[in-house]
Amino acid sequence: MRDFLSDKSEKNQLKKALYKYIHRKRRISKAELLKEFHVPNTTMTRMLAELTDRGLIRQAGFGHPTGGRPPVLYEIVSDAAYVIGIEIARTDVRVMLLNLNYEVIGNDRFSFMKQHTPQVTIEKINDMIRALMERYQIPSLLGIGIGAVGPIDRENGVILNPESFPAEGWRDVPIGEILHKRFSVPVILNNGANTAAVAEYYARNDHEENILYCISGYGIRCGYIQEGRLFNQKQGDATSYEHIVVEAEGRDCTCGSKGCLKTYVSFGAMLNRLDSLGIPSTIDDLLNSKESSVREIIMESAHYYGIGIANMIHILHPDTVILHGKLIYHDSEYYQEVVQSVNKHICARNHPITIRKGVLGEKATSIGAAIQVFEHFFE
Known about the structure:
Arc Repressor Mutant, subunit A; Nucleotidyltransferase, domain 5; 3 domains; 5-stranded mixed β-sheet; 15 strands; 42% helix; ROK; carbohydrate metabolism; WH-like_DNA-bd_sf; ATPase_NBD
């Protein structure tokens, strides 16, 4: 599989495009493929036979007849190769093993603590990958994808200097190079918000074209897909969205500015606000407290979050906004207030914007990281 996908020769490009199209359609007949690729019937027959002989695709039953015999359907062989998806977040690290249909075969995780320096973390990731490969008898991998807190250097696979990591030493960590040497496969690093957006894009059959994916919690991270492709920032800092100003001359931010979205919406901002009112609280209180003072701060946060998202909508023009985070899933009142605030502060558009929760939850970042590994062979 890796040899086939890595072959960039002109002769192989059409076969790769054919394979990719079968992968996207899941099951498809030769007649449908002929309509899409406009090649002679003999050429299509030869390419399908070649992909079948190499164990990359297979016959998958029959479709509905249209007057004659029912057509043979083709699908990819999902276990022809496997990919690893990794999430490195502020609170935990997840490792997932996926087949080529993006189905999770196995997974593992650990909480991110003060002792998890880069060396300790990468060793644990290495051990988890090898344990998954041994458990599911995977002889080799197609590649490894990583979704991490930024800022990052995507081109060189380096985690630069992530904010608010519990452990020290996370500056200029060449994690891509390290894992490439360990496993001899391509390693693709991206922001976790971007990989999560990729996962949500592929999770729905309608493949919404323009998606804004927003993660809220310890910070605000966002990823954007435009016309089916990731809109990446040069430095790879998905947290830049949290510095959108939502109140001029507002609260002081760590960036040196005032009134940034982060200072109203993050867990830290809400806890600081409660502390200033003499109400010491924890994140568990934010998630579970029914106290009116706590609820008031949470609803204030939702209001400002909606303003920030509305500003992003005015700039990016997404068709769909996907919201992810502990409060989004745990607190329906908070979620509804965010949605109402967005709708209140956006200008009228010719077509409605869909605002919804993520369908993959905590798995999105790892799944999307794995997907990006497979997709990069077709770029």
